[in-house]
Amino acid sequence: MTMKFTALAAAALAMTFGNAALADAHSGKVKIGLITTLTGGGAALGVDTRDGFMLAIDQAANDAVEVVVEDDQRKPDVAVQVADKMIQSDKVDILTGIVWSNLALAVAPAANAQGKFYISTNAAPAQLAGKGCNKDYFAVSYQNDNMHEAAGAHATASGYTNAFILAPNYPAGQDSLTGFKRLYEGELAGELYTKLGQTDYAAEIAQIRASGADSIFFFLPGGMGISFLKQYADSGIELPVIGPSFSFDQGILQAVGDAALGIHNTSQWNKDIDNPTNKAFVETFQEAYDRLPTLYAAQAFDTANLILAAAGQADIADRDAFRAALKAADFNSVRGKFRFGNNQHPIQDIYVREVIKEGDVYTNKIISTILTDHQDVYAADCGLSD
Questions:
Q1: Does 238 lie in the same domain as 303?
Q2: pTM value?
Q3: How many independent structural domains does the chain possess?
Q4: Is 235 exposed, middle or buried (0-12, 13-18, 19+ CB in 10 A)?
Q5: For 14-18, 121-125, 288-292, which range has the lowest pLDDT when averaged over its residues?
């Protein structure tokens, strides 16, 4: 990959990689297995994950860090097979990259049981945040409920009292509706679980039309969100829509177009967060890949930089020291402030964004902070200490 760096990018990247550059001082190398979805449904999310992660790795130019990339095809059995190969044949130290929670649940606990770190770039199911937390499991992204909790809080703040809510029937979808209801204070006009990978939402839209709802909350990542938003726009229903960032990322917005304009969605990251690391990340990602980064890319970029920072402070062979370096999170995040809670999930601000158009590009801008220094509710059930 060939990269071009402006003065802004070079200065910010020097800050970002200050500690990571020390990794060469350690004798042990760090081998990372990045498993993500690169083909089939949801491939765009995996490509963004890979590209964000590899941007940080390539910028660091550190020979002590090696990355092996494999496709999970969004299939749990394939993800398990790939993880086993990486652990047993490739001899990786760390696994990362999985987008989908059902795949993460199949891979992460088994990887931890085999003495490997799992550091999540995205999927962060409730089962791994509370009683099922593990000292070798870290989620750099969020806990699955978080964006949806913020959406529930925003719906309440907006005065909606009779929302219709829907999500796919898999762990992240279940977490999403649980999260929304936790901070939403109104009634529900309807609650639906759809099929993972579903593309026809005629029946669901008919139920929304007949429900008497005053608003809609939905979580449908990737192609599911594109299909729903297009069909909803064509339906003529004009209820306000709220969703999490996953349903309004750059890829979805370009495919949906004007139908998404003005919709509010919740995220812990956006390209307009004002800090040098984020500005440099957005600029260099565009230069490298000729597109704006998504949340998936930003989270993966942070994950890679966390690992690089830990490698600069401890040898991977000293698991306790390396774990402590990960927990310290001594790196410059695109989110600005970043810290882990006791269950090794982030404590962070969550924003409300609005879909806008900049020239010919559909994107998001932050309009408010809806949750400040927010920690997931499951942390109280985790036996790990701060």
A1: no
A2: 0.90
A3: 2
A4: middle
A5: 14-18
